[in-house]
Amino acid sequence: MSRISIVPSLVVGSLFVLSSTSAHAFQIMKGKWEVTVEMQNPMSTQPLVETTIECIEEADFDPVKEMTDEGECTILDKKETDNSLSWTMECSGEDMLAMQGEGSFTTDGKTASGEMKMTMSFNGQTMEMGNRWEGRFISKECD
Questions:
Q1: What digits encode the pLDDT tens for the residues 66-119?
Q2: What are the residue ranges spanned by the domains of the chain?
Q3: What predicted TM-score, i.e. pTM, was given to this entire model?
Q4: By the 8 A CB rule, do 38 and 7 touch?
């Protein structure tokens, strides 16, 4: 079980990253979570679906922090309520194509869901990728 990341990201390897430093972090249940991710990209004929069991050790949760920590993505617009978050972003770096995207995240503490869509241009063609995820709290104890 991985302590840090819950969901593979299109951008930097993980989309949901625990953070106790965010001023507006979401509160989620600490413990064992089941997370299902559906990833779609134009290079694959079928979506890739993966379900994992993850251990969340912090109750404060900021799902966009990792994208800006790596320095390759900039959040342009972030809107928050008590249980939801939406954002738009741009990403670029030495080892990646420039991308634009948007995402959303919602939680009630024991369940979480969200999606992210990214668009990039490559050799004159526009490519769109996306992922959706759903998580559910299983227990307070991690194995």
A1: 556 666 788 888 898 888 889 999 988 777 788 899 999 898 888 999 999 999
A2: 17-136
A3: 0.70
A4: no
